[in-house]
Each structure stands twice: as structure tokens, then as C-alpha cells.
């Protein structure tokens, strides 16, 4: 997919919808975007962006239908418990061939098809919060009614906020335990790394700088390098040195088992949510 994106509606421009919106605007590839929000204040703020029209539900109860009717791609970005009502609201407003994309966790393509009709092209997307700074990872799963061309267009949409990984729908929940929840794992490691620095006598400010910028720098080096993380780790780990001693302690803690258990727990919870529990 190359060139400009077709008219897009983003229904629910909260944190994730807003991040995608900003990525689209910054890319310059989406000259026609309509956004719906509950409040006039937020709609006005979104409407100040280039190529964006903001509609407020408090002013017009038909705002979602109006936005959906004018779009070739409809992004459903409301909270999961609101999805079914929203789909029922817009179902008869969609034009033939309009692509519907869900960023709502736990709502299956089958649920969309049941409400909208089996012939409506539907895709599920699972972005993560670094999309806010254009460094996101989005998992993308296409439903049976979505063509290769439509999937490529949606891929291009999410490429404006980072990397896109196409998966089968049955892998979306597993992907969410890695890239979706993953930023929280990284922040937790930084929290603990900072505490270790404070415990060694550094001020909180200095500890934060050391811990946070070490992670920022390490990931920047990883991104710029052709080496994999294991090789970069070996380059820092001199034989019989201080890093080797520290890494041995971390490996004794069986981080492989800890991360397997953590992501398994997240996957179990994702399946509970999908079942309405």
C-alpha cells in the first residue's frame, strides 16, 4: 500500500484512538479524518488538527452514524463494553465496502460480523501505548471478509504509529501479552533498577537518570545494531568481570520461567475477558 489513505472515522478518540489520530495527522497520509468524542471541548481540540473534523456526541446523538457513513475505514476505539451498542448504532449507516477496524481488547471478529453482517470487512488491531510517540507495535488480524488490498490499507494506517505484525486472530491475545502489556514489564524493571540505585546511596534524581537512560540508550543501540540482544549482552559482559557476576545472579533467578509465567497469566486473563468474566 502506498499513497494517500481514504476517508477515516475514529469512533472514540481516547488515549489509543488519540495516539492513532496523531500518527495519521503527522504522516500526512490521511487528509480526511472524522473523530467522535463525548465532549464538545475534546471534539474542538481534535478538530484543530490538520484534516480532522471533530464531532461531539453531547451535541449530536447521531455523530457516530454520521462519521461512519462518510468513511471508507471506521476505527472502533471505544471501551470494550461499549462496542456492541456502538456497532448496533452504526450498522445501517455503513456504506458497502467500508472496512471496520477494532482496537477494543477481547471483542472477536465473529462478534463484529454477527452485528454488522458477515459481508462487512472487519479487522482486529492490538496497538500498544508507545504508539503515542510513533514507536508502537500493532498486531493486525484480518477477518474472512477483508481482502488483501483492504488489509494492506489498514496496515498502512497503523504503520503511521510504528511497526505492524500481521497474525491470525487466535494469536491476538497472545500478542497482547507481549507487545500490548510489554511496556508495563519494562517500566517495572526500570522501577526496580532505580530502587537498586537509590539503595546504593544515589539521589532519586540521579538514580532515575541512570536507570531510565540506560534502558533508553540500550534500546536505541539495539535498534541501530544488526546484532541480536544476546550478542549485545555478551559484548557488555567481560569474562570474569562485574557484569558477568550480576548476570549470573539474574539467570539464577530463572527470568525465563518468570516471564513465561507472567505472560501465561496475562493470556489466561485475556481469555477470561473475552468470555465476559
UniProtKB/TrEMBL annotation:
What molecular function terms (GO) are annotated for this protein?
A: pyrroline-5-carboxylate reductase activity
Pathway(s) where this gene product acts: Amino-acid biosynthesis; L-proline biosynthesis; L-proline from L-glutamate 5-semialdehyde: step 1/1
Q: Where is the Pyrroline-5-carboxylate reductase dimerisation domain?
A: 169-272
Q: Name one Pfam family in it.
A: F420_oxidored
Its subcellular locations are: Cytoplasm
PROSITE patterns per UniProt: P5CR
What InterPro entries does the record point to?
6-PGluconate_DH-like_C_sf, NAD(P)-bd_dom_sf, P5C_Rdtase_cat_N, P5CR-like_CS, P5CR_dimer, Pyrroline-COOH_reductase
E.C. code? 1.5.1.2
The Pyrroline-5-carboxylate reductase catalytic N-terminal domain sits at 8-106
Catalyzes what? L-proline + NADP(+) = (S)-1-pyrroline-5-carboxylate + NADPH + 2 H(+); L-proline + NAD(+) = (S)-1-pyrroline-5-carboxylate + NADH + 2 H(+)
Keywords associated with the record = Amino-acid biosynthesis, Cytoplasm, NADP, Oxidoreductase, Proline biosynthesis
Instruction: Give the family per the record.
Output: Belongs to the pyrroline-5-carboxylate reductase family.
Extract the PANTHER family matched here.
Answer: PYRROLINE-5-CARBOXYLATE REDUCTASE (PTHR11645), PYRROLINE-5-CARBOXYLATE REDUCTASE 3 (PTHR11645:SF0)
Q: What job does the chain carry out?
A: Catalyzes the reduction of 1-pyrroline-5-carboxylate (PCA) to L-proline.
Give the protein's recorded name: Pyrroline-5-carboxylate reductase
Q: Origin organism of this chain? A: Microbacterium horticulturae
The coding gene here is: proC
Amino acid at each position: 500500500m502506498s499513497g494517500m489513505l481514504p476517508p477515516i472515522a475514529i469512533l472514540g478518540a481516547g488515549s489509543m484512538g488519540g495516539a492513532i489520530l496523531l500518527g495519521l495527522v503527522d504522516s500526512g497520509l490521511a487528509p480526511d479524518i472524522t473523530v467522535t468524542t463525548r465532549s464538545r471541548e475534546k471534539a474542538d481540540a481534535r478538530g484543530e488538527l490538520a484534516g480532522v473534523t471533530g464531532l461531539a456526541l453531547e451535541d449530536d446523538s447521531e455523530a457516530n452514524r454520521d462519521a461512519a457513513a462518510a468513511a471508507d475505514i471506521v476505527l472502533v476505539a471505544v471501551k470494550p463494553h461499549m462496542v456492541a451498542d456502538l456497532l448496533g448504532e452504526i450498522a445501517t449507516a455503513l456504506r458497502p465496502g467500508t472496512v471496520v477496524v477494532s482496537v477494543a481488547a477481547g471483542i472477536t471478529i465473529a462478534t463484529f460480523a454477527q452485528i454488522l453482517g458477515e459481508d462487512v470487512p472487519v479487522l482486529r488491531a492490538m496497538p500498544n501505548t508507545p504508539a503515542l510517540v510513533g514507536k508502537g507495535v500493532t498486531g493486525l488480524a484480518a477477518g474472512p471478509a477483508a481482502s488483501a488490498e483492504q488489509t494492506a490499507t489498514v496496515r498502512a494506517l497503523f504503520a503511521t504509529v510504528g511497526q505492524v505484525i500481521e497474525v491470525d486472530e487466535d494469536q491476538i491475545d497472545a500478542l497482547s501479552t507481549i507487545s500490548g502489556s510489554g511496556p508495563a514489564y519494562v517500566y517495572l524493571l526500570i522501577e526496580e533498577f532505580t530502587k537498586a540505585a537509590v539503595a546504593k546511596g544515589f539521589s532519586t534524581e540521579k538514580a532515575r537518570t541512570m536507570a531510565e537512560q540506560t534502558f533508553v540508550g540500550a534500546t536505541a543501540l539495539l535498534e541501530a545494531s544488526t546484532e541480536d540482544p544476546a550478542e549485545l549482552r555478551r559484548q557488555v559482559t567481560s569474562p570474569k568481570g562485574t557484569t558477568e557476576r550480576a548476570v549470573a545472579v539474574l539467570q539464577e533467578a530463572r527470568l525465563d520461567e518468570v516471564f513465561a509465567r507472567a505472560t501465561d497469566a496475562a493470556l489466561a486473563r485475556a481469555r477470561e475477558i473475552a468470555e465476559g468474566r
